Structures are given as structure tokens and as C-alpha cells.
């Protein structure tokens, strides 16, 4: 009898029938590993997969699988944007009131550099509530779109999420931001008639230095002045507040810093109509996007000792 020939590596026909992916992991294990790698450092993701599923993988494998899944999704979203621009399909129905906000967060890159990740948050506006005598408007059903890119590229690519959430078909859209100069173009591109609202705490950040220069930094008088201006802004609107800031700035012509804060506030006066916005059921804070920066971006990409190459960032996002 002749000797048997050694078998080489090959796919069993059932592998093709089940659409198994290349490598030693089943599709479900690859999916679970990618989820874990997106939530925690790769070594911990590999260890947790071993504990939960009894499957041993290395840290490099966890990194490779996670980033490959992310890169595939980035490629799909980019192609989908081109499809939406080309075909202009009808958007799904949006809610009666849709919240939209954009902000940036810095992440550490290889070589000691930092890069700004921009994040879009979309959510459904809930009915206003009165909490301790104050009107509070919250949002829910948040979704996120993040990219390490310049503002023009980010504005274009965000279409994949604004179209999915029905920004075009929503009854009304409230765009709450920190007032950055590039954001009006973002609003014009995705919803030109969005209600544009300056984040209330950011208005306070530009009022506070005026009081500190005028009434001594850290003094009770400066704090009392700031509290008065914020109360007035929230309940009466910006006119009286701007008049007061103009008065203090005029009394200190040598203080160019306070003049800069005044210019910032004057330029955004129409976005500080807090009583009108609250009465119409709009939130006046961008806390949802600031939370996204911390919980969606920084929690994973800004850990101790972490540095990312630019090519890694968007797949991880």
C-alpha cells in the first residue's frame, strides 16, 4: 500500500457556506473582540475575550481586528456619503424637534503631537420640565459621528449621520454650539434654517473675565456680578447684559482682553436669546456633545500612556 500524502491548509466547503472570515475567529468572535477593543485597551480586550468565551488571542490580534472593523466602517460611511451626494435619496422622517451639536476634543498622537477630533451629536428634544423653579430641556436617543479631520472634510462626511437621523425632514432643528467660527458653515450645509443657540456656559466663560478684571479676580463682588449677569441673560435675554459689559469695557480702555470678550458676545447676540429658546422648548446647553467628548472619544483614546498614529484614529472612532 502507498503512504498517505500529508494534508495542507484548505477551507472546508462549509466555511464558504457559513461565510466565515479569514483567520481563526468566527464572525461572532471577531465582532465581540472589535467591540471590546473599542471600549478598552487591546490587552484587556484580549484577556476579557479569553475569560468570557474561552478563546485566546494576542494583544496585536485584538488591535488588528478592532482597527480592521473600524476601517471597514469608515470606508462604508465614506462611500455612503458619495452615494447620498450623487443620488440624493429621500431622508427618513425626523422628529418634531431635533437637537444638533458639534464640538472638538484633543487626542494624543505619536511624536508628541495632538489632533482635534470633531464630534457631531444628534438627539431628540424632550418636553420641557420645571426643576427647582427653572425650565430645563433635555435630549435623548443620542447618536454620534466623529472624525480626525479638518472642518470642511468633517462637514461633508457628517452627511452620513445627519441624513440617517432625518435632519432634513425634522420639524425643527436646534443647533447648540460653543460659537466656533466654522460652525455656521456646518449648519448652512446640513440645515440652513436651524435655530442657532450659543451654549449658555460658554457665554458665562466670556462674561466671567470681564467681572474679574472689573472687580478683582476671585473677589465676592466679581462672583456676584457674574451671577447677576447670568440670571439676567437666562431670564431677560442679552440686551441688558451687553449694555452692562459695554459699560465696564468703556471704563477700562486699556484692557484689550475684556474688549475681545465683548466682541465675542456682541457677534453672537442673536444666539443668546435664552428666554425665547427655552419658551420654544429648546435646550440652551451643549452638555450632550461635551459628554460625548469625554465618554465616546477621550475615554478610549486619551488613556494613560496612549499615543495614536493618525491612520489609527478614525478606525478607532
How would you describe the overall organization of this protein?
With 317 residues, this protein is α/β, with parallel strands linked by helices. It has three domains: 13-87; 97-191 and 285-316, no CATH class; 201-274, no CATH class. It contains 14 helices and seven strands. It has helices at 13-17, 27-39, 42-53, 59-87, 151-157, 159-164, 183-190, 200-215, 220-236, 238-250, 256-267, 274-279, 287-301, 310-316, and strands spanning 97-108, 114-125, 129-131, 134-136, 139-148, 172-177, 195-198. The strands form two sheets. The chain has a five-stranded mixed β-sheet. The protein has a two-stranded antiparallel ribbon with strand order 3-4. A hairpin with a 5-residue loop joins strand 1 and strand 2 (114-125). Helix 3 crosses helix 4. The chain is elongated. The termini are far apart. The mean pLDDT is 93.
* Overall shape: elongated
State the strand order across the main sheet. Answer: 5-2-1-6-7
Give average pLDDT, whole number. Answer: 93
The major β-sheet equals: 5 strands, mixed
N-to-C terminal Cα separation, in Å? 60 Å
Number of domains: 3
Q: Give the helix proportion (percent range).
A: 40-55%
Radius of gyration: 25 Å
Number of helices: 14
Outline of this structure?
This protein has 14 helices and 7 strands.
Feature tags:
317 residues, alpha/beta, five-stranded mixed beta sheet
Secondary structure layout plus pairing:
Blueprint: H1 13-17, H2 27-39, H3 42-53, H4 59-87, E1 97-108, E2 114-125, E3 129-131, E4 134-136, E5 139-148, H5 151-157, H6 159-164, E6 172-177, H7 183-190, E7 195-198, H8 200-215, H9 220-236, H10 238-250, H11 256-267, H12 274-279, H13 287-301, H14 310-316
Parallel strand pairs: 1-6, 6-7
Antiparallel strand pairs: 1-2, 2-5, 3-4
Helix pairs in contact: 2-3, 2-4, 3-4, 4-14, 5-7, 8-9, 8-11, 9-10, 10-11
